[in-house]
Amino acid sequence: MKEDVEKALDLIRPALQNDGGNVELVDVDEATGTVKVRLVGACGSCPMSQLTLRMGVERVLKENVPAVKEVVPV
Questions:
Q1: Structural domain boundaries, residue 32
Q2: Which of 4, 35, 40, 45 is the most exposed place for a label (fewest CB within 10 A)?
Q3: pTM strictly above 0.85
Q4: Could you give the number of structural domains in the chain?
């Protein structure tokens, strides 16, 4: 599952990098479907980071990796 999550994150990294940020995978809990990520660069301090996390990162991960149930920031 971790490899699938990384592949899905690669789909959204270009958009984040265009804005001066990125996303790092911290942990994947396969039992609960929880993925922990860290927004870095401009994305880490952006006031819109929670929206980016929910509407961008979480949406893409859930669409591409059905086992993902939740994405949480660390």
A1: 2-73
A2: 45
A3: yes
A4: 1
